[in-house]
Amino acid sequence: MNRSQLRRALGCALLLCLWPSLAAAQLDDDLIPPARDFSSPVIGLLSFRVAPYRPNFDGNAAFEQVFGNDPGLMLTMELGGIVYRLPDIMMFGITGQFGWANYSGNTIDTSGNKTSEETDLTLIPLTALAQLRFDALPRNFKIPLTFTGKVGYQWTGWDTDSGGKDEAHGWALGLAWAGEIALDLNTFDASAARIMDEEWGINYAYLFFEVFGFHPSPQSLEVGDITFGFGIGFIF
Amino acid sequence: MPFWHGWLNHFVRMSPTARTKRDNAARNYMDRVLHSRAPVRALLLSLPCLWALGVASPAQAQQTILTTDVLSIGGVPNTAANAATLYINAEACADPDSTLVVQVNGLGAFMNPTVGVWVGNNCNTNRADSGTTSSDCVPIHSQPLAGESELDVEVPIGMLSGCEGTATVNVWFMPMANATSDTEVITAYGLETFTVDTLPPATPTNVSGGSGETQISVDWDSSGGDIQNYYVYWDTAIGGGDNDAGSGECATANLYAGAELDPGETPPGVGKEKTASNATSHDLDGASIDGDMAGVAVQAVDLAGNVSELSETACIDVVPTNGFWDLYKANGGDAKEGCACSLPGRPETSRTPWLGGLLLLALVALRARRRA
Q: Who contacts A26 (Cβ-Cβ below 8 Å, separation ≥6)?
């Protein structure tokens, strides 16, 4: 047996020796599925916000005269779609908000005294918003903060009544904006986040603080304000 | 194996296989019988038959139950639903002429000369058997029956035993040979149950009045108990009341604490509104009050229709008021009602590009997402 024949024989022997382990590896690959990507597609957003809201009325004293220093409480629900997602960096969404706030006080008689009769102001803001959400920090660096900017258009339905009778109502229209900083809850408990996604399809949950404003047109009732609110949101 | 199988084997010659098969079949049958509910079901089904045959109660089997309809109570037509409680109130009990009018149906088959009206418990037991006119079951009225199939029986309410305080009274209507006899076989009867309630509800307390133009509030504390509704009275003739009796502010000749006012007969000049049963507040419209100040008082009515004494009085002021919108305008506000459809500092039509821009942005993003 020359040297080349010897080399060929050793190669065959090595191949024969390794064959069972290679075959087993092949078998394992067939049986064990690859690591599953548990993240479901991101399609929408739902959030709930509570905020003190006090229309500024451009210095008109009527609001303070009737409703005093009542800061009001505006409840808002936001629902919309995520139309573009740059994985682990940002997402772009179009959302709609529906809110409600009510102020109640007493009418004032001709002597300037408050009566027992009630007068109310109700605000129902409807907002269409475009928003950019940056979530690179929690996705890449485990820093649980996301930042969002929103801008859009708001229609605020308003209605005021006095003594049980409707006095006036209308719509105030104008620009709306918001800046949000959110605490990404997925960062704190990844396994719970995975279960939320598998069971409910919720990809991310977050608590947020938001500064927002509404600037109605001059012809509208001046029900705008710049204020802040807190809430909870879900991206699904 | 059941005990009789051994005896049976003495008389019937069988192969061991056939015997085992027979034993198993017998055992299965007994198991099914003993563990099923068939015996209970059979017993339950047989009960009505036993009842019909007179085994259970031969004395009651002969009696026919007559249908009755209460037409009026104390002159007030009865509008209560069938299952509703029928009340007899203090007013009906006190009036010597007031009656219950009850229509008794299905009398055509009976040849008895009268319909006897009895009050008590189990008055339909045969007179000879029960001893009859015990204090528990007494005849109070009778009405001749001359072959009619239905008869409107008028029962004097004042004759009902227990027509004071609160009590439940059973009134029996029975075709009888002698309406008051203590030896009678009762062949048919009708029964109506009434709740006598002659106690007035508690008088509402802590009455207070407000001021306003179209929504003047009157508040009070609940009377508690079985309240049907409250009446809020007002009267502008302030000053004629029995103020010495501590009737409160703004008492009038008609409205003062402790006055017994009949809601059905409101005195001239006195206004009245009815509230819900659980109300503790009511708003009056100044437009219905003829004056700028009035005395108000509240009265409770219970489910039987008994009315409380009038509460203490309070004052209300009818004054012109300004609501938020009036004050907004008075302070120089110039916003218009309706839709102010324009953006800040821009003419009305400029909203379209903004909305269009938003829509375009959404479409571009959607397209980009599909491509991705």
A: none
Chain B CB contacts of A115 under 8 Å are 210-213, 317, 319, 321
Contact (CB<8Å) A171/B341:
yes
Nearest to B75 by CA among B64, B63, B91: B91
The phi, psi pair for B344, rounded to 5°, reads -55, 125
Asked if A216's CB is within 8 angstroms of B321's CB, the reply is: no
In the sheet that holds B68-73, the strands lie side by side as B76-77, B68-73, B99-104, B151-156
Residue of A nearest to B208 (CA): A116
Residue B100 CB-half CA count within 13 A: 30
Chain A hits for B208, Cβ within 8 Å: none
Question: ipTM value of the model?
Answer: 0.79
**Per-residue pLDDT tens over the stretch A111-154:** 999 999 999 999 999 999 999 999 999 999 999 999 999 999 99
Residue A25 has a CB neighbour count (10 Å cut-off) of 10
- Summarised one tens digit per residue, pLDDT across range A86-98 is 999 999 999 999 9
- Decide if B335 and A171 are in contact by the 8 Å CB cutoff: no
Contacts of B123 (CB under 8 A, 6+ apart): B137, B170, B172, B174, B189
Cut 0.80: pTM above it: no
Identify the bridge partners of residue A227 per DSSP, sorted by sequence position.
A212
Q: How long, in residues, is chain B?
A: 372
Nearest beta carbon to residue B327 from set A66, A92, A94: A66
Q: Which is nearest to B239 in space by CA: B263, B222, B255, B225?
A: B255
Name the closest residue on chain A to residue B215, using Cα atoms.
A163
